[in-house]
Amino acid sequence: MDAKICGIKNSKTLNYLINHKYPPKFIGFICNYPKSKRYLEFKFLKKLIDINKSSEINFVSVLVNPNKDILNKIKSLNFDYLQLYDVSPERTLKIKKELNIKIISAITVKSTKDVNLYKKYKDISDIILFDSKGYEKSESFNHDLIKKVTSKIKIMLAGNIQYDDKLEKYRKITDIIDLSGSLETKGEKDVSKINIFLNNLKKIK
Question: How much is the pLDDT for 148?
């Protein structure tokens, strides 16, 4: 399994991740969702990610139903993937072609019906993220629901996964684990929790 750590807000945490002995493969930034406490204004975002990184690390722009204005701004930045919430399959394909960028399509899950939406994206998106309905909150859903996914798509899993969970239990259902809130203390990323998570993940690789 690989890791995505989401909701990075400052250069101290970002530099810690990039220079970690076992860095996450994906690092996410909240780009157009002000309701999230992890949201970054564009000028700060642009400065934050204008750094050198290993080609093994992917920067992910997290977007909720983005308009043309934010997409035009984002396309000039140092992003490897767009993570899209509330974007139809048709528009996802259009964005992917216009920006020539890889796509993570986020599906928010409460039931099997929600999970089955992946079938509409599986031939468009590079990764399918199964997340909770919480958006800016770390809510949970029944992860067993995604065992019904039969396609050989690359799966990312989020939704109230804890930094010190026994990660072995996720190996059969996901390719990538996505953490944000559980890596925080008093609303800020905690490098001690990040370190525990990344080291635990390395042990099962």
Answer: 81
